[in-house]
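Hey, I'm writing a tutorial for new members on how sequence and structure tokens pair up, and I'd like a real worked example in the thread rather than a made-up one. If someone can provide the structure for the chain below, I'll link this post from the tutorial.
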Amino acid sequence: MPRRLRCNDAGFVFHVLNRAVGRSTIFDTDGDYAAFETVLADAVQHVPMRLISYVVMPNHWHLVVWPRASGDLSAWMQWLTGTHVRRWHAHRHSTGTGPVYQGRFKSFPVQADEHFYTVCRYVERNPLRAGLVTRVEDWRWSSLCHRQNRTAVAWLCDGPLPFPENWAQIVHEPQTRAEYESLQRCVARGAPWGDAGWITKTATTLGLQSALRDRGRPKRNDIST
């Protein structure tokens, strides 16, 4: 079961992920992707949230967010996913036919230093890693595309660190296997991502100590793209 954070998450940056039931396709058309971006825009108005980076993929999405107040992450995610599910079913006239998402969202806190950049790269490289584009900035449904094209979007905020001018080039660079596998473990366990001392302190603050215990290799179906 996903871990529920204590309600003192204000000030921490989080990576957040959810995917479709059975890895089925959620987003079939440009209209589906655009509709989800509309939900993002509405969500940041309903529960004020700093959305820093994101990518929407055919059967899942990743977000990097920075809550302003304690409890905002859960409240915001509940509104976001609940609203998207209702609108998704209403558009398809499929209300009552079953869930869209595999369950509650997964998340892990991220240290606001070089680890922050690493997580944002991990998120925005998804379309390239999946072979959907040859240049990351060509995937329309991502924060990188909007920032690269200087598109004014109300749902994007600056993060705790500024993005370099050559950010798209940085995102293009492959991540190391060790780095990628470490991030995968954080996704599967909900464990903090950062320096050793920061990880220990943050796990205690957020009640995530059990996420640091060695449980062997994560199951393959817990690993995100």
